[in-house]
Amino acid sequence: MYLSSMARRVLAVFTAVAMVFMYVPLLLIVRLSFNEGQTFTPKGFTLDWWDEALSADGPRDALFTSLRIALFATAIALVLGTLASFAVARYRFFGRQTISLLVVLPIALPGIVTGIALNAAFREIGLDFGILTVVVAHTTFCIVVVYNNVIARLRRLSPNLEEASADLGADGFTTFRLVTFPLLRTALVAGALLAFALSFDEIVVTTFTAGAGVETLPQWIFNNMFRPRQLPIVNVVATIVIALSVIPVWVAQRLTGDPTASR
């Protein structure tokens, strides 16, 4: 599409403003993680807070808890989201569009609504709050990410390839292993990475579904950010979270992006 020089300059200015608005606060947190003081005013440079954060038990235990929950939630979401996408994309049945809407709906609901609903449901069935309830809660919205990635790829793939494989005598499992899965592999990886990042960063739903003794890294950050002595350590931990969140999102973007966009 052709754009005039004025339009290109306007778009460049708005893009720059958007980038500043989104990333200057993040860069400030990274800078404060090396701050000598215990305030939000940049002053000096030190690695002492990094040493203290990396040796502290609280953030390390919370990190392992977040990683464990995110891995379990991603694994379950990967299976359920993929199966749901195959059902909707490859078969015609009554209520198919309704099911597609219901699968996607959890990601559109406010986190506090989802958290309250799941909290009430767990209490109703008598399920003890703990790691399991958090994993189930996170899976409800992680499924959406996997589902959207896989169904988008399935809709671009012609079913003729699978039909040709069946005509050549391959059963369903063989067709999936040799034909369908290689074509879906990048979508599956991208969906899993985005689901992991979404689960790892979640705090609202976690607050309503985690039991006593369960503290994820986002919860640890929130619980300690108002304690003056802990503030520099919180900045370090937040910097680590930023790095851990950027990696899966960047990889997912590379896997699902237009291969000709960088040319």
Short description:
This protein has 263 residues and is mainly α. The chain has helices at residues 5-32, 48-55, 57-90, 96-108, 111-125, 131-156, 160-167, 172-201, 204-209, 217-224, 231-256.
Task: Describe what you observe in this structure.
Helix content is 77%, strand content 0%. It has 263 residues and is mainly α. It has a domain of 169 residues: MetI-like fold (Orthogonal Bundle). α3 packs across α6. The longest helix has 34 residues. The radius of gyration is 22 Å and the shape is globular. The chain starts with a helix and ends in a 7-residue tail after the last helix.
> Please, what is the CATH homologous superfamily of one domain?
MetI-like
CATH class value of one domain: Mainly Alpha
Can you tell me the CATH architecture of one domain? Orthogonal Bundle
- Shape field: globular
The share of residues in helices is over 70%
Relevant terms:
mainly alpha; 77% helix; disordered C terminus; 11 helices; MetI-like fold
Helix and strand layout, with pairings?
Blueprint lengths: L4 H28 L15 H8 L1 H34 L5 H13 L2 H15 L5 H26 L3 H8 L4 H30 L2 H6 L7 H8 L6 H26 L7
Helix pairs in contact: 1-11, 2-11, 3-4, 3-6, 3-8, 3-10, 4-6, 6-8, 7-8, 8-11, 10-11
